[in-house]
Structures are given as structure tokens and as C-alpha cells.
Write a structure and sequence with these properties.
about 100 residues; alpha+beta; three-stranded antiparallel sheet; 10 strands; about 35% helix; elongated
């Protein structure tokens, strides 16, 4: 057998990612390994890494990792954006009603 293959099935070798402090398992090409986000117990979500062509790991995707504080701020922003969208829709509706009455 050659490195990166197992019975003619290519895979990425298990490794420890020093930058993100995550251990990746042997993973078949075209599939992903999913681990808990690195960091303290205040960081939530999953970090994903795809095993790419030729058994080469792609860069980890940490976009779903967020702290509890950031999650709270994001939820507050989402609520404000929804409120602004509702207000804009109500203002547009009121403007249309005024135009219809004037016609």
C-alpha cells in the first residue's frame, strides 16, 4: 500500500492541526471530518475539513464557530434587521395607501 490509499480507496491521513489545535481522523477522499470548534468552552459550533483529491486535506472551515457573546450580538442584530424590514414594509404600504386614496 502507498501512503494515502487503502485497498484502492484514497484517503487523507489522520493528523493534528497545530494552528487550530484539532485532530483530524483518517477520511476518505470526497468526505469531510467534523470536529468541535477549537478554543475554550465558550466557543460553540463545528469545524469541518474536506479530504480533497489525491488525499490532500483542504483548509478547515471554521465559519460556524462562534463565542456565546458573538452569538448574542448576532441574534440582536438579526432582530434589529427584521424590525427595520418590517418598518420599511409598513412605510411602503402606508405610502401606497395614500397614493390609492389620492387617485
Amino acid at each position: 500500500l502507498t501512503p494515502g490509499t487503502n485497498l484502492d480507496i484514497a484517503f487523507c491521513d489522520a493528523e493534528r492541526d497545530q494552528l487550530w489545535s484539532v485532530s483530524w481522523a483518517n477520511t476518505e477522499v470526497g468526505f469531510s471530518d467534523v470536529q468541535d470548534c477549537p478554543g475554550s468552552d465558550q466557543v460553540f459550533g463545528n469545524v469541518t475539513r474536506v479530504c480533497g483529491e489525491g488525499g490532500v486535506w483542504e483548509d478547515p472551515d471554521v465559519s460556524s464557530c462562534e463565542s456565546q457573546e458573538f452569538k448574542k450580538l448576532r441574534q440582536e442584530l438579526d432582530a434589529l434587521m427584521n424590525q427595520l424590514s418590517l418598518e420599511a414594509a409598513l412605510n411602503a404600504s402606508a405610502g401606497l395607501l395614500v397614493q390609492l386614496k389620492a387617485a
